[in-house]
Amino acid sequence: MFESILDEEERGQVGIGTLIVFIAMVLVAAIAAGVLINTAGFLQTQAEATGEESTAQVSERLDVVSQSGVISDDAAGSGEKGIGTLEFVVASAAGANNVDLDEVTVELIGADGQETFELGDDDPADVNIFTNGNDNVLTDNSDRAEVTVDLEDAGVFDDAGYELNEGEDLTVTFTTAASASTTTEIRVPTTLVGDDGDSVRL
């Protein structure tokens, strides 16, 4: 009924040695699993942070709803007709969270060189949110704010100002605190029709 195994090579391994090897294998597997779980958790956290930052750089930006300029008969004392003030109506882009306009950086690039300033500075920009009572913060993409830039501010744009003469171009870039940028082009007509103080669409 029972067969006796006399050959030593066919006998099962038993004893404390086998138990120690088994326990060692379990410990190694447990340590390896712990390392893999920790690494996976770290990579997941890093991926989530990267995804949030990337999303913010795409969505946390401003949309320029409209842009216009105010005619100046004596732009920055030049004696010529030009655009002395820029007026923008801006809104937060679709999917954006709250956008603090005081932390928005504006960059102007044109014939007079490059100028950079923040909307939260005293000069040369002025911000007026006319759709909510919040302090310079766009809380919804239905909110609207008017950003006025005084190009004739000699204290910011040197003595000559940064006024735009007829036929000149200007690139304006708005960059939010999340480093999301919106660029718009200003093109002044070759002939400005209107009187001093009149607003023209640009």
From TrEMBL:
<dbReference type="GO" id="GO:0005198">
    <property type="term" value="F:structural molecule activity"/>
</dbReference>
<protein>
    <recommendedName>
        <fullName>Flagellin</fullName>
    </recommendedName>
</protein>
<dbReference type="Pfam" id="PF01917">
    <property type="entry name" value="Flagellin_arch-type"/>
</dbReference>
<dbReference type="GO" id="GO:0097589">
    <property type="term" value="C:archaeal-type flagellum"/>
</dbReference>
<comment type="similarity">
    <text>Belongs to the archaeal flagellin family.</text>
</comment>
<dbReference type="InterPro" id="IPR013373">
    <property type="entry name" value="Flagellin/pilin_N_arc"/>
</dbReference>
<keyword id="KW-1133">Transmembrane helix</keyword>
<feature type="transmembrane region" description="Helical">
    <location>
        <begin position="12"/>
        <end position="37"/>
    </location>
</feature>
<comment type="function">
    <text>Flagellin is the subunit protein which polymerizes to form the filaments of archaeal flagella.</text>
</comment>
<keyword id="KW-0282">Flagellum</keyword>
<keyword id="KW-0472">Membrane</keyword>
<keyword id="KW-0812">Transmembrane</keyword>
<dbReference type="InterPro" id="IPR002774">
    <property type="entry name" value="Flagellin_arc-type"/>
</dbReference>
<keyword id="KW-0974">Archaeal flagellum</keyword>
<keyword id="KW-0966">Cell projection</keyword>
<dbReference type="GO" id="GO:0097588">
    <property type="term" value="P:archaeal or bacterial-type flagellum-dependent cell motility"/>
</dbReference>
<keyword id="KW-0969">Cilium</keyword>
